[in-house]
């Protein structure tokens, strides 16, 4: 096995360390965060850190670094209080990836990467029209993580849209059917196919492995 | 498209809401958190919320709900200051899933689910011997999220072990090669296969989509 101690990791070339440490958590969800500012200028950013935080009320979080290209996203969320989370599938993977380029404030990633902004049901932030799972979010809290200057953005789910194929039965979301993909590291995109669904685990239903 | 408003989501049956909201973030990494208490009693918990927080120093986070089966994990981490994160592959997926059963304090999930605890290189917490990517972590900070009573556990990476096939070149982690899998919702496990790696995005290298 390859083995890296903390000191080995510290001594790595910066880009090698970035790639290694960004890869070791496993597969990450591929989502686009859509926002707009008070002047109607839209913004779109690929984010691989969206995480479930609670179901009642439905609460999701994601992490941002404030001083990188994502800063327009954070500014817009604070200005309007709303944002969208949109799943990425294979057809839009390359466009989604290139939203991470450091475009100027006046260049919307929707335009630069040829994705369609969709406003609907009176919601303040733009969805990605091509996405097959779209979530409208209201900012709940912005937590500064002093340890390493990241920000945890916590929001409440206001709307969920799922293409019909992705919602075959109540509570059952079939992400394979809508082609949602995942990310490893900083730059690699993957298709996903189901192995198995296992029953709710209780001490008295442990299988014979 | 299926459409749920906030009020629709509130009105759902509790289990349907749990399944829906746990599914909408996209694919989640499948990791086992290994711990031990001061009496040498080990614990193992499947966690789908591990997230990259920083690379210099290497910092990872995960979310816990304090009053559920994961509480032994949190108690052990606070008692010893150390834990491990271990990737799940298809062969151990079912065993990993059943670590979520509410076993008593005296029953180690390693034993109950037939996974092998591995202590090495003087590290205080047990790795999952079967895992092909193993990470030794030191607790850095425990942040209480007052909004919904979850806990963000932040730690520093002390050791990384990757089976050789998973580390083909400096900084390149091939999670497909070591069979790391991912999770959707509460109970569904998936295999993963690479689509593409895209170059670092700059405003001047946007492709003709």
Report on this model:
Chain A is built from five helices and 13 strands. Chain A is α+β, with helices and mostly antiparallel strands and 209 residues long. Chain A has a single domain, classed as Pnp Oxidase, Chain A (Roll). A seven-stranded antiparallel sheet of chain A has the order 4-3-7-10-11-6-5. In chain A, strands 2-12-13 form a three-stranded antiparallel sheet, with no helix packed on it. In chain A, a hairpin with a 4-residue loop joins β10 (133-145) and β11. The first copy, chain A, is globular. The first copy, chain A, starts with a strand and ends in a 12-residue tail after the last strand. The model of chain A has no long low-confidence stretch (mean pLDDT 96). Chains A and B meet through β1, α1, α2, β2 and β5 of A and β1, α1, α2, β2 and β5 of B.
Give a summary of the structure in a few sentences.
The structure is a homodimer of 209-residue chains. In chain A, 17% of the residues lie in helices and 38% in strands. The first copy, chain A, has helices spanning 6-11, 14-23, 71-80, 93-98, 109-112; strands at 2-5, 28-29, 31-36, 42-47, 51-55, 58-64, 82-87, 117-118, 127-128, 133-145, 150-162, 182-184, 188-197.
